[in-house]
Amino acid sequence: MTGQVCGVCESPLPSKAGSRGRAAVYCSAACRQRAYRSRRDPAPDVDALIAEVGRVANRLTPRPAEALLTDLTSLTADVGRLRRIAQLALRSEEENVTPEPVTETVDEVDFAERIEQHQRELRVHCYRMVGSYDDAEDLVQETFLRAWRGREGFEGRSSFRAWLYRIATNTCLDFLRRNKRVPRPYDPLPDVDQQGEPPQFMPWLQPFPDDSAEIAETRETMELVFLAAIQHLPPKQRAVVILNDVLGWKAAETADLLETSVASVTSALQRARPTLRERLPERRADWVRTAQVTEEEQAILRRYMAAATGNGDSRVMAELLREDVLVTMPPNPLWFSGRDVFLDFVAQSLDPASPTYFGEWKHLPTSANRLPAAAGYVRRPGTRVYRAQVLDVLRIEDGKVVEITAFEPHLFPAFGLPLTLT
């Protein structure tokens, strides 16, 4: 071994004696990716954030609507970051009752900024653990609160990031112990001739809004099919798989974070991986690993939105869907398996002459969990405004839509989407 250590986890680097090329800076590809993320997401400059909020606020105008929405989305994000930093600093003032200065105290603002630096990736981590965007938001805030209260206990034996991940993981495990979530098959629908066995019902499952700067992982670790599969794992196994197989931590690092042995981590992985293989599509190993929605998927999404307006050709929708397409609508217990079954269901609601006609539709394109998604708005008969109704997340294979997961619209603001259209 050399006397050098990894620039991220501070583990000893392997010797390069007798070999050509540059000396290693990181001990693994995972550490290299972590360093890349930290360079992309430096700790926020509070003064710069305040200046940016003022700049964006001063240019707000009601029209054009698209520019207004873009500015409001940016403004909301920056104000949220400032609020979290201020809240952590305020807690410090409330809790610091020592009459005389304590030597080597943690600078409150600096500590808050260090935590904020990891806010986005911790939200993703909590989301993977629990499968719910709303719960992940709450768990990240609980993580920050626990970190703040226990800041004096950080002794620097591990990286600050690893310390936060330990707190976040334990926060999620505590949540899952309090909230027993067990997937179960959907109930059969009366008078509906479904194809195949019922899928698994997970009413807590929610989409995650994509952001090109949010995470560097490929879609295979964010897709809904993967999120649904890991929900079948016991919480401890789920944590081990996420830390070891998704984040690329070494077994020893995972064991240290979970306060267990390397043998226990290895055993958990051996039990968890077969369960995942059973729950994931057979051809998943052959999927193209991309981080963003492809041009082909974007083209299919545009055709899907046009066909779903109610004015589109139903034959186009039939061409887009694979014969065995699966449609689920968490948290609602409604599900459809098979193209003809699904099209028969929606046909009446799209026909203005039908007594069950639902209204006129508009759609906006977006993406969720690294998949193409359509935000659907409906103008009910007798009204003038299109209101947010559904977020359809599409999984596409070989040019066909094989799965549609339709979510309720309350998360539209998290996607930067308006709740109404005119």
From TrEMBL:
Record-annotated RNA polymerase sigma-70 region domain positions: 115-181
Keyword Transmembrane on entry: no
A Gene Ontology molecular function term of the record: sigma factor activity
Gene3D superfamilies on file: 1.10.1740.10, 3.10.450.50, Winged helix-like DNA-binding domain superfamily/Winged helix DNA-binding domain
PROSITE patterns xref list: SIGMA70_ECF
Domain of life: Bacteria
Ranges of residues in domain SnoaL-like: 302-404
Location of the RNA polymerase sigma factor 70 region 4 type domain: 226-273
Keywords from the UniProt entry: DNA-binding, Sigma factor, Transcription, Transcription regulation
Keyword DNA-binding listed: yes
Annotated InterPro entries: NTF2-like_dom_sf, RNA_pol_sigma-70-like, RNA_pol_sigma-70_dom, RNA_pol_sigma-G_actinobac, RNA_pol_sigma70_ECF_CS, RNA_pol_sigma70_r2, RNA_pol_sigma70_r4_t2, RNA_pol_sigma_r2
GO biological process: DNA-templated transcription initiation; response to stress
Subunit structure: Interacts transiently with the RNA polymerase catalytic core formed by RpoA, RpoB, RpoC and RpoZ (2 alpha, 1 beta, 1 beta' and 1 omega subunit) to form the RNA polymerase holoenzyme that can initiate transcription.
Family named by the database record: Belongs to the sigma-70 factor family. ECF subfamily.
NCBIfam families, sorted: PRK08241.1, sigma70-ECF, SigX5
Protein name: RNA polymerase sigma factor
Annotated source species: Amycolatopsis lurida NRRL 2430
